[in-house]
Amino acid sequence: MKRRKAGPPSASSIRKAGDEALSTLLAEALVMEGSIDRATHMFHAYPARMHPDAAALVIDACPGPVHDPFCGGGTVLVESRLAGRESSGTDLSPIALLVSHARTADKSLTTPMRSAARKIAAKAQLRIDVEVPEGLDRWYQPHVAQELGRIRDEIPEYDEAVQPLLKALFSSIIVKASFRKSDTINRRETHHRAPGTTAILFHKKARELGRALDAMAEGPQPLIQAGDARFDPPQKDRGLVLTSPPYPGVYDYLPMQQLRTAWMSIDMGSGLPAEVGSRRSFRALGRKDALQQWRKDTHRWIGTQADALAPGGRMVIVVGDGLVGDRMVDALSPTVESMRAAGLNIVARASADRPDHARGAIRIEHMVMAERNGA
Ligand SMILES: C[S@@+](CC[C@H](N)C(=O)[O-])C[C@H]1O[C@@H](n2cnc3c(N)ncnc32)[C@H](O)[C@@H]1O
Question: Is the pTM of this model over 0.90?
Answer without folding.
Answer: yes
